[in-house]
Amino acid sequence: MATPFIDSVLTFLPDHDGINSQISNFCSEHHVLRQLLDTLLRFSLGQPCPYASTEATLLENWNVKQSDCMKSFDSFAERSTGKRARTDEDSDPSTTNKKRKVNSDPALDGTPRFTLHALSVTSPVRKKVDVTITDTSIRLTNPATKDLESAIPLSSLTRAFLVPNMGKNKNKPRWTVILISGDTWDRKQEKADKESGADGQVQVIFGVDAAPTAAKDLLTTTTYPDEPVKHEKGSDTYPHLKKFLSFLPPSIQLLEASDNPSKAPTPGAQFSSTAGYAYVDAYRAAKEGSLHFMNVGILWGENKPCEFFALQDIARDEDGTGAAGVKILTATGRTFSLFVRRRFATGDSGSGDDEGEFEGEETEFAMIDGKEKENVSQWIRTHRHLFGKRSIAPSTKKIHEGSSATAKDAEAAEEDLADDSDASDEDFVTDSESDGGSATSSDSEEEGAGSKRQSSRSAKSGNDDDDDDEADGEDEAVESEEDSQDEEDNQSNQSDRMSASNHPLLREGAMPRLSRAAVDAVVGMVEDDMGVISWKGTPDEEDELDE
């Protein structure tokens, strides 16, 4: 029988005090002892029994005793290093902190369509993987071992984003792909998913340089059934990302924010910052990210967890200030914070009112450069009329058609007032006179209309003197109904004239400006009325309290 273990030991054993030479000589003279020492090493190192093929009982005893021997070795290590020895309970997958193995569902295999090789992925795993899209799923595999790291069913995804950024070091343009299963991210649900091993919330986030120049960053793609293609240095990666996203099913909404307007598929999606980017840098708590302003909502990315605020999910503008769902606050002017409040639907609110809805927690995005305040404010002014707007049920559509013109007029007036300048006192006078003139004209028209209706009723009454009592009763009912309608219209117009949207001084933070001369004049009159004596003209007068 060969003795590889004792031979290896004697090869590397130091010859201290002649121990190596003595054992070598002794084993050379006694070959049976050499085999016994080799068997002893096999047993101590957890190797299989060399006699297992001939004696089954020896094999069973070997395994049992060998396990006990290994545990005793662990107890020696615990006493020497102070570390607790690993037990069988510690190896239980349910109690270990190691990443669980991914069990590939055959239903998620599908036919591969396109692969982006060796990309840095942020979520659901944080490593370099091959990203393959199939008919049914997105599969992340290890480039070296080809082991499956994660498989995400396409049916669980709802939105896809392709957004630009400047990378972690802010030194080179990159593209980031974000795939999400929901617009929000629930921390409690995330913890429950980790404990149960389920994938209730899914976010796939990966990025690539817009034009890679380093050899290690060059993009390699595979369009099946063709062979992999490694693209040249400096080539544009945008078309390859678009090709990858083209294999997504139509049920997944694709949204794109681009620095180049010619690349954006949706009109109005281009938000331009002061530096010409399609986003602004911000912080959510202590995590840095980017805010992408689109024509359908606001995206927070590119680090997990990402979150999307659709326009219809943002709290409505109830008071006409446009600050209900999205507002800006700044203390110094150098930076500002953006607050976004989400509106959740809890039931059927087809009637168009607030029933079945509630406003959620306000989310703060801080440390935004003050130079971007006007750009963000412009986006808010452009889209605030869409905040919280949901589709109206067909049964209630006709009810709201009559008030559509009034709503449009109020909306136009609100935007006009928002653009008014408060540079001088005349602005307030002009606005007030304009509001008052408009109201007076409206009242005159209503009075004229009422007079015409009264004259018409009088003429009609004169021509129908011979009608019976029933016809007279109908005329009186019609007259009463019209008078009631006139009274309601007057009350509505009065309420509109007193609304905050029609008076600049009633808007939040509004204050009339007074010149210094006017302030001094008012102070002087108050001092005269109170008998206050100015000390400026009589500096030598003595204080009566000193006498």
UniProtKB/TrEMBL annotation:
Annotated region (Disordered), positions in chain: 80-109, 391-512
SMART domains, sorted: Rtt106
Superkingdom in the source lineage: Eukaryota
Domain Histone chaperone RTT106/FACT complex subunit SPT16-like middle: 277-390
Transmembrane regions listed in the UniProt entry: none
One Gene Ontology molecular-function label: nucleosome binding
Pfam families per the UniProt record, alphabetical: Rttp106-like_middle
Biased composition (Acidic residues): 412-434, 464-490
Family membership: Belongs to the RTT106 family.
Role played: Component of the FACT complex, a general chromatin factor that acts to reorganize nucleosomes. The FACT complex is involved in multiple processes that require DNA as a template such as mRNA elongation, DNA replication and DNA repair. During transcription elongation the FACT complex acts as a histone chaperone that both destabilizes and restores nucleosomal structure.
Descriptive protein name: Histone chaperone RTT106/FACT complex subunit SPT16-like middle domain-containing protein
Lineage: Eukaryota, Fungi, Dikarya, Basidiomycota, Agaricomycotina
